[in-house]
Structures are given as structure tokens and as C-alpha cells.
Amino acid sequence: MHTKYIMRYFKTFISSFILLGVLACNSLESGDVDEVIRKDTLIAQTTLGYDSIKAAEFGADAYGMKKYVIAFLKRGPNRDLDSAKSAELQAAHMANIGKMAEEGKLVLAGPFFGDGDLRGIYIFDVQSLEEAEALTQSDPAVQAGSLIMELKEWYGSAALMAINEIHETLAETPM
Description:
This protein is an alpha+beta fold. Helices cover about 50% and strands about 20% of the residues. The protein has a 4-stranded antiparallel sheet. Helix 1 (about 1-25) runs antiparallel to helix 2.
């Protein structure tokens, strides 16, 4: 927590230092001073905000992004289960989600609201569609034909890799 405040203080100090340097330059017009201040502040914030250790840990490229595979969970052909079988299948589906998340393969999962054909999503941290396909086939709801999946490669923020760790601090009741 203290690191955040130290960094904020340091950014303010650097910005103030840059401002004093710019104001000391008599050769600049007042409009030029504002432009230099904006550019130097942006450079200082960008440089100070980058965390190369986290970027490497999360697999980020130079833009802070990485490749994922998204699975769109859709209504499958076998949905006419009695309530006991449906509850059993849902419990197995949720256990599989937990297992994939613990293995670090599933970054994000969740259902969509409503009763449409699109039921939910998975976001996998895998390198290929084939690996994602194998993971989706491990889902008991897919095996039972209750869900089918459509897979797409996706380029998104590497910060998603922190979502499960953060989620654990927010969930009062585990899933």
C-alpha cells in the first residue's frame, strides 16, 4: 500500500521538477510550455507505471497484451434433464471450472444473463485452439451435450491473468 503512495509522490515530484525546468526556459512561448508539460508528464507517468516483472509474469507483450482463446458456451441439444440430473451436471460443470482455474488454464468464466442460446464464456490462457478444445471437452456439460462451445482466438490485456487472485479477495462465499 505504501508503494502506491510513494510512487504517486514520486510522479508528482518528477512532474513538478519537469515543470520548473520548462518554466526556466525563456525561449519557449506560453503555449509551447503547456505542450511540453503535457508530453513530459505523460512520459514520466508511462515510464514510472511500467512493471517489467509483472509484464513477464503475465506474459505481456510490449503493449501489455497477450493471446487468449475465448470459448462461447452455447445451449446444446440435450437440455431436457430432470431437476436432480440438471443440478448434478451443474455441480460437475462448476467443479471443472474450478479445476481449470486452479491449473492456471482458465482465466475468466461466467454466465450471461437471460435465457438466450448464448449461455456464458470461458477465457483460456492457452497457445492454441486445439488446447482450448481439449479443455472444453473436459467439461461435463459439454460431454452431456447440454452445452456446446465456439472457440475464438482473442488478443486482450495481460492484466486478466491477475483476475483469479483478485477475485479470491472479493468473494465472501466461494463458488
